[in-house]
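Title: Comparing notes on inverse folding

I've been comparing how different people in this forum approach sequence design from structure. To keep things fair, I'm posting one structure and asking everyone to reply with a full sequence. Here's the target:
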């Protein structure tokens, strides 16, 4: 995970994708200025991108990478906005710098970045000064209608995805309690679904409550759903929770924080470079963000991300 490579000189500036509301305003009150000052110690111009909303952020990231010749794209964000930044860099020589500013920051934690935003910005500045990057895998989602999305952490395609979908449709309450209520509601009506998984061409039929595909180990602020996932091995980890009772599911959930749920007899783990997932009535989520309905294909793309670290 520590391989370094050199890249040709492109431009002097760092393009910064900034979400000051990430982590419920974690960077307000001077925190943004401190992060930008730390980035500036790399000796390059720091340009904050115009990103008033999700569409503007995505367009600005693409423009910075492909048209404006940025030396690097730096995302000062939580996991959700980080996923936007990940759409811009694959297939280019432009590295990504990540300053974790959200509440979960699962991807940043998995790749060993400091949790403190200013400390992470200093790591990026040092990496820029030394032209130092780490090559990491990303996962790519493709659907039959042409939909494509990259992700760095985990794709959810089971009970957790259903809960996310329900919570996002709720108008009340606001904040984390909305997800708590969505979990309760889905537990009351939960049922296994019939999945067809195709792992490197080999089909598996299973009635499952949970299907997760990991490029890295955790999601949801430290839930180690795919505990053995390694973003340098060219493989995806697939964790499947079979048919189980509500009580069993509630007993397994605390084990997600240590990743010991995979030892339960109703949980099975697989590894594959390409994973097809087929099921009815499921909309997938990647890095906590809404992706697309099943069926879909997930592919591990080795060294798709050049991370400043």
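Reply #1:
Here's my take.
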């Amino acid at each position: 995970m520590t391989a370094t490579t050199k890249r040709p000189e492109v431009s002097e500036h760092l393009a910064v994708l900034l979400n000051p509301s990430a982590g419920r305003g974690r960077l307000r009150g001077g925190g943004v200025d401190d992060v930008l000052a730390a980035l500036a110690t790399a000796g390059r111009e720091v340009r904050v991108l115009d990103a008033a909303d999700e569409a503007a952020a995505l367009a600005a990231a693409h423009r910075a990478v492909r048209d404006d010749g940025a030396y690097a794209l730096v995302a000062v964000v939580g996991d959700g906005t980080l996923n936007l930044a990940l759409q811009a860099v694959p297939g280019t020589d432009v590295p990504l710098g990540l300053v974790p500013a959200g509440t979960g920051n699962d991807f940043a934690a998995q790749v060993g970045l400091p949790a403190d935003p200013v400390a992470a910005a200093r790591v990026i500045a040092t990496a820029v000064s030394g032209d130092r990057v780490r090559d990491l895998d990303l996962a790519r989602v493709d659907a039959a209608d042409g939909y494509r999305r990259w992700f760095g952490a985990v794709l959810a395609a089971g009970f957790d995805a259903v809960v996310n979908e329900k919570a996002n449709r709720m108008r009340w309450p606001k904040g984390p309690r909305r997800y708590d209520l969505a979990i309760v509601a889905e537990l009351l009506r939960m049922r296994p679904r019939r999945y067809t998984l195709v792992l490197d061409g080999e089909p598996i039929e299973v009635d499952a409550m949970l299907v997760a595909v990991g490029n890295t180990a955790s999601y949801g602020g430290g839930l180690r759903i795919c505990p053995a996932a390694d973003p340098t091995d060219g493989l995806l980890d697939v964790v499947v929770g079979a048919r189980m009772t509500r009580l069993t599911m509630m007993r397994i959930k605390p084990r997600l924080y240590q990743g010991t749920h995979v030892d339960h007899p109703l949980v099975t783990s697989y590894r594959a470079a390409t994973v097809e997932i087929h099921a009815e009535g499921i909309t997938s989520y990647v890095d906590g963000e809404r992706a697309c309905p099943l069926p879909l294909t997930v592919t591990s793309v080795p060294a798709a991300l050049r991370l400043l670290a």
